[in-house]
Amino acid sequence: MGGNSSERPPFTLTGLPGLTNSQHWMFLLLGVFYAISLVRNVLILFIVKEEQSLHQPMFYFLSLLSVNDMAVSLSTLPTVLATYCFYLREVSFDSCMFQMFFIHLFSFTESGILLAMSFDRYVAICNPLFYATVLTDARVVHLGVSVIIRSVCTACPLPLLLRRLPFCKANILSHAYCLHPDLIRLPCGDTTINNTLGLFLVIATFGLDSVLILLSYVLILRSVLAIASREERLKTLNTCVLHICAVLIFFVPMVGVSMAARYGRRGPRYVHTLLSLIYLFVPPMFNPIIYSIKTKEIHRRLHKIPLGTKHTY
Predict the structure, then answer these.
(1) Residue 227: its pLDDT value, please?
(2) What's phi and psi for 26, nearest 5 deg?
(3) One-letter-per-residue 3-state SS of 237-257
(4) Cα(213)–Cα(287) distance, integer angstroms
(5) Residue 308 confidence (pLDDT)
């Protein structure tokens, strides 16, 4: 057993390799990312709340996605701020476990939300007559709560299993925050159970969700191809563009981080760092931008907010 966490040495955070003397510029860049992400997601939540025409399941899920994206940003902010701005590299064992839990919790939650949004698109396109009866407000709430419960149950074993292991080497992390693939290489005990469970959880969440999302779009495409008019086919598919972009923005960097952690450990350190930055910063920043540009109600309302003009719809 690893003993009490208070007896364990702290972890050492790492910034971008080779940029030790320019860390403050990196923080300014990441600060811009944080600001864009938080402001845009707050605006999305405000507009969905105020815009009556957006009171429908797809935008309820979008609101949940925005809350989750803000939570991802806030969960990484303390250690990123400490590393790049104040040059404080040490983080206690408990703080690291705490941060790791929430980062992975929100990652699992985002995957579940994207799956729920794909179900929304499937029902809206393949069974439009039953859309209002299938995706009621109560069912949307149940789906959201189910996603959160699943995420909590999935993320909980990660820190619990790490706590049982001894950490007796130099606990130097590859990033400015705590990620499970990074932490799992540090214990000097047997990590077989941790690695096996970690792989199982990835397959059971990200893997299963991505397969179900792909299946939903196969069914959607089959339904769309049955539409006689080319214009109607394009119009129907256009309603899925936003969700497809959000799925790609989340899953592509996540696959890159997983592959690099498991099979690219001998590669340059900056590759791992950049992939993790993309994974944690790109989805929260670009999701609200994409939805703001492609959703006309949100786009129109965003242009009116700086003017302070009141509008009714």
Answers:
(1) 83
(2) -65, -40
(3) HHCCHHHHHHHHHHHHHHHHH
(4) 17
(5) 47
pLDDT of residue 267: 65
Q: Residue 44 has which token pair? A: 């999305």
Distance CA 197, CA 217 (A): 29
Q: How far is CA 313 from CA 46, 50, 291, 301, in A?
A: 15, 10, 19, 10
Q: How many residues does the chain have?
A: 313
Identity at 226, one-letter amino acid code: A
How far is the C-alpha of 17 from the C-alpha of 126, rounded, in Å?
50
The pLDDT, as a whole number, for residue 307 is 47
Give the DSSP per-residue string, 71-105. HHHHHHHHHHHHHHTS---EE-HHHHHHHHHHHHH
Q: What is the pLDDT of residue 45?
A: 93
In 3D space, the residue among 204, 185, 205, 209 whose CA is nearest the CA of residue 195 turns out to be: 185
What single letter denotes the amino acid at residue 68? N
Q: What pLDDT score does 137 carry? A: 93
Model-level pTM?
A: 0.89
Task: Find tokens 């402001």 and name the residue.
Answer: 39
CB-neighbour burial class of residue 45 (10 A; exposed 0-12, middle 13-18, buried 19+): middle
pLDDT in tens, 302-311: 777 654 444 4
> What's the alpha-carbon Rg for the chain, to the nearest Å?
21
Pair 211, 251: CB distance under 8 Å? no
Q: Which residue ranges in the chain fall short of pLDDT 50? A: 1-3, 307-313
**3-state secondary structure at position 173:** coil
SS3 12: strand
- What is the Cα–Cα distance from 302 to 296, expressed in whole angstroms? 10
